[in-house]
Amino acid sequence: MTTQTTLLTHCELGGSGPRLIHIAPANGFPPEAYVPLAAGLASFGRILGYRPRPLRVDGDAQPGGTWRDLAADLIADLQAVTGEPVVGIGHSLGGILTLYAAVERPELFQRIVLIDPVLFRRRLQILIWLLRQSGQGYRFPLAQGALRRRDHFASVDEARQRWQGRGVFADFTPDALEGYLQGGLRPHGRGYTLAWPKRWEAHIFASSPLDAWRDLRRLRIPLMIVRGTRSDLITDSVWQRLQRMLPHATFAEVEAGHMLPMERPEEVAGLIARWLAQPIPHR
Known about the structure:
Elements: H1 4-9, E1 10-12, E2 20-24, H2 35-39, E3 46-50, H3 67-81, E4 86-91, H4 93-104, E5 109-115, H5 122-133, H6 141-147, E6 152-153, H7 156-163, H8 174-184, E7 185-188, E8 191-194, H9 198-206, H10 212-218, E9 223-228, H11 236-245, E10 250-254, H12 260-263, H13 265-276
Parallel strand pairs: 2-3, 2-4, 4-5, 5-9, 9-10
Antiparallel strand pairs: 1-3, 6-8, 7-8
């Protein structure tokens, strides 16, 4: 049953049945952008898209907290909408929040899928650490890029024309872009602004965690990791390190970039669906 809490913290992405699939989005992205991915998983159960804290705060609220705090939100919000273990799917930021939650509260999850999660190669980890030690965390290029984003539009159509075929949206399917427009904009004055405030997006990039590798070693539930072969995050060296570290996990690749759930949603969903159709492995 849909409740007010569900409407605030999650949105329905389709599907039906006893199993619950929980999709946590990337930084700056609303769950509606994952509708095409969810469509390929609808036969496996009801699908909820998660709305992290930045999508629920007042646009003028000061950003704060860590990724661990956002994971604590996810745990509390998940407990509020279901009492049964879920299939947790997370992309980028959402992958790490799902990982943290599954390590902290494994009983909440049947299994998890991490799609191009934020796992930095060693050299980049050192650079980020040095920036933070010198009080310059916001010099991280992704944080700078978020602060430069245009965040006001006269209409949804103006935003569509601005983003379609460009930048991070260049290879989005039409339905994924429409989902982003639906959930990623909110009315503001006589126009629209970003539903995920760019100051929050920048803060999250600037506070990207350096400890997620440790949590991977602590995970005790079935795990699948999917990457885009053109991803600038899960590079070949990171991919090889993951496979050495996690011999019991399932690994899959898609010919796409970091935004693979929006670029190749049917293929990503197909890989996940085949894994979900298999019995839960016992270690």
